[in-house]
Amino acid sequence: MTTTRDAETTDRTDHVLALLGDVRDRTVLDLGCGDLDVARNVAAHARGYTGLAADNAITTQTRAALRSHPAEVRTTDLDRWWGENLGTFDLVVSVTAPQHVRNLARLLETLHHHVVPGGRFVFQVDHPSTTAGPAGYFTDGARPELPTWAGRPAHHRSLETYLRDLRYCGFRLDEFSEGKPGEVGFRTPTAAPPHNPRWALFRCVRTP
Q1: pTM of the predicted model, to two decimals?
Q2: Is 82 in contact with 56 (CB distance < 8 Å)?
Q3: Has the keyword Metal-binding been applied to this entry (predicted)?
Q4: Which of left, alpha, beta for 155 (phi over 0: left; psi -120 to 50: alpha)?
């Protein structure tokens, strides 16, 4: 029997894959390797897959999940990543990882150099309305009360902050989703439809 949490994770995966679209003949970079189902699906169909995992445990897990696919997975601290020796990619996907980096703008600036002009960047974070906490919605920063990921704290950012950083770093918003039930064909039903948005999902295009 699938638990509610498992069903929610599956729903999130379906939303991410819907935004990614057809990955055939694409070279793909997976920042953080935050969703193994996304990694498997992409690696099975893309022309090339490179994953940057947040720590050695995630690297080992991702490599095991992709052992039947041609894929390269490295351990990389995204707070320090400058993209050396990676080349460029047609598509970048990131699940969870962006809300666990200290300086999102720095990551986006690095990413801009490794996405081809017109290439896409699809990423998912917990919806800012769920991460604001006692500090308030418009106060960006680390939220120690939220679960960590790969030993890294979660950072709250308003939607305005995400959109501003994307624009300043050369990415145009192409599609946005808040994970509304019924938007895509879910493989597993949730126990009950949520009353509030759970995620924020962005599909962006690199401008010249």
Answers
A1: 0.91
A2: no
A3: no
A4: beta
DSSP letters along 88-125, please? -EEEEEEESGGGG-S-HHHHHHHHHTTEEEEEEEEEEE
Q: What whole-number distance in Å separates Cα of residue 174 and Cα of residue 92?
A: 14
**CATH class of segment(s) 4-86+100-206:** alpha beta
Residue 183's alpha-carbon distances to 7, 12, 22, 73, 145, in angstroms, are 15, 11, 18, 31, 30
Query: d(Cα 35, Cα 122) in Å, to the nearest integer?
Result: 13
Q: How far apart are the first and last CA of the chain?
A: 48
Cα gap 77→32, rounded to integer Å: 9
- Where in the chain are the domains? 4-86+100-206
Helix (H) or strand (E) holding 166: helix 159-168
What residue has token string 């189902």?
A: 37
